Amino acid sequence: MDYPIVKSVTVEQLQKLHYDRIGSEYESHYGDACSGQYREQFINEPMFEGIDLRGLEVLEAMCGSGQTTEFLLSKGARVTGLDISTDEIDSFQRRWPGSDAKCGSILSSGFASDSFDCVAVVGGLHHLHPHLSEAMREIHRILKPGGRLCFAEPHQGSILDRVRAFWYKHDHLFASNEASIDLESLKQEFSAAFSFDKEEFLGNLAYLLVLNSMIFRIPLKLKRWYTPVLLSSEALINRLQRKWSACFVVSQWKKLEPPRTES
Question: For the whole model, what pTM was predicted?
């Protein structure tokens, strides 16, 4: 099932300008060793759990400098990066010269249909409102039948979501269109296009104070001191997490095979 693609210049330009403005600070906080430890243990491992990535064609969509690409390459995947920001794509190419990269939009990527075995998105989908559905349709188009969409995103329905929504509106580090994703509505909308193979709710203090240290204006030198303790506590807390208590959701969606037609 292919869907029509709709472009949105407004959203694309908003995000490009936003990340060009905060890119240096963003990279220093989200690209440091402490954040890398968090992503490895609590995002990458659960997000790709059960998938043999060896030899797969994987698109890291809204890739930035390719913070997920390192993990994918270590598992033997062939990675392509896609980002709307020329600065971020330049950074991606410098960091991962052996991988392909394209400056473009996930709303209309320009890739051929059925191009990728997997599309990975970490913290990018919630930047696309009100055009998230168009992005999902484009992802569906470029995935091979049976291919997987793997993503990690802040979700609606948690205690922290109301705090997050207020913060989004009053902090200049967030673009005006950012909002958590309505996972249940998305699943209902795309129930004929994907099977929903995994859904895990994660994230607590380490998500907030280690991965998102930029948002809380925590100095990087201080972050190094408390990270080991918070990572250990996060592993314990995540065993008890539920949708209402978690900061984000990790999901694996599988593109359904097209229905067979009898000859």
Answer: 0.89
